[in-house]
Input
Amino acid sequence: MCLAVPGKILSIDGIDPVLRSGRVNFGGIVKEINLSYVPEAKIGDYVVVHVGFAISIVDEEEAERTFEYLRQIDELSEIEGEPA
Output
């Protein structure tokens, strides 16, 4: 299954909006994500990520609620790279 998952931006690299990327924390798993679709995103924001691209900004409460749903259906292992 392919999901869009929220994560918290820890750092941002690049000034060029097309090449902008950041390190994003997904509940303890940190990955490098393309931020070109959310040029207004800043460190500390939560973004929804799909196939390596941040596609929107969400508030912390919504991000936590999504993580709880993923825990309930046991889909967080897909983010962590482990078999479900």
